[in-house]
Each structure stands twice: as C-alpha cells, then as structure tokens.
Target: Probable GTP-binding protein EngB
Amino acid sequence: LFARHWDFITSVKEMHQLPDLGGVEIAFAGRSNVGKSSLINKLTERKALARTSNTPGRTQMLNFFGAEHTQLRIVDMPGYGYAEAPKGMVDAWTTLIFKYLRGRSTLRRVFSLIDARHGIKKNDLDAMGILDKAAVPYQVVLTKADKLKPGQLERVKEDALKILAKRPAAHPEVLATSSEKGTGMDELRAEIALLVSY
Ligand code: GTP
Ligand code: MG
Model:
C-alpha cells in the first residue's frame, strides 16, 4: 500500500468541491502544528507530498492524496486551535472540517493526532465530541514522540487511554509516532492496511 507512488488529488475549500465518494478514506486531524502533514509525508515516503511548516495554519484546505491501484485515499486536514488566524478564516475552515467529518460515508477512520508533549487538550476533546456524535471511528496517534523520554511517553499514553475509555467512537489503542525518527510508522501502516482490507 505504502510502497506505491502517492500523489496529490485535489484541495477542497467548500463542500461542493469534495471528490466523488469511492474507495476508503482516512483523515488526519489535530491541532495546528501537531504534525499532520509531516506524518502523511513519512507514511507515504514522499518528502513534500503534504506541505509542512513551522508556521501553524499551513494547511488551510482539505487535501486529498491517492495512489494508483489502491482504493485508499488520505486526507490532510487544516489544524484547529490556531488562535492567531483571522477569525473569519478559522470559522470557515472549522465549518468545513466539521461538515466533512459528519457527512462522509467513505470515511473509515480519523486519526486524531495529539502532540505527545502536550497530551489531550480541551479543543481535542471538542473535536472528539464531534466524532463521537457523528459515530465516526477515530484513533489517537501521539506525534513528536522523539521529544519525550520513554517513561514520559508511557505516562502520556496511559493518560490518553483513560480519557478514551469513556468515549464511544474512540479506538481503544493509542499509537506513538515520530515523523522525524520514523518511530511507529510500521504500526500505523499496519493499522491502515487493516482498514482497507475489510
Ligand atoms: P498545520 O497544517 O498548520 O495544521 O500543521 P501540521 O499539523 O500539518 O504540522 P506540520 O506537519 O506542518 O509540522 C509542524 C512542525 O512540527 C514542523 O516544523 C515539523 O517539522 C514539526 N514536526 C512534525 N512532526 C515531527 C516529529 O515527529 N518530531 C519533531 N521533532 N518535529 C516534528
Ligand atoms: Mg498541515
């Protein structure tokens, strides 16, 4: 699946621009700067497929990626919780994100990215609340694991699992990843391959 050549399909700013339903979609969601685009690049082994940046708010549309001969599509989402963006812009993309998450029948799982240094915050819980309500399955993926010592990472994982245990649409496992070091990529790829196979 990930040995294939991944390409950009389209960017979506408004709901009517969404590509036709087809195949299986997975989406990467999370706070601005959490590492969504970096993780997609690492997964697909393409350095600059999804645009990454030090400046939060880099990804401002839903970006769709695909590879030939696979039914999987990967969606890079704009980050939430980016306080410095103009309010009108934030409102526009928050609406888009929530509409997309609620209404997409081919969306098989959302990977809810959480910075391992920060853990699950209020706006992450808000996003999870939307997914729970819409019954969209989601799985927490910790990012930037390279920034923590193993012991710290275990604690963050345990805290996350406690929070997730009470949430109806949450997957009961948490993955720890580092796009910088490649940690956790095989596990994440295996998880995604399972989603495509059934
Ligand atoms: P928006 O599109 O703005 O919502 O951000 P994003 O979630 O797509 O984050 P992006 O992938 O652009 O990464 C943000 C910053 O975090 C960049 O400077 C990355 O280099 C850095 N980063 C991403 N993943 C990792 C990681 O695993 N380890 C470390 N140390 N830094 C990372
Ligand atoms: Mg991004």
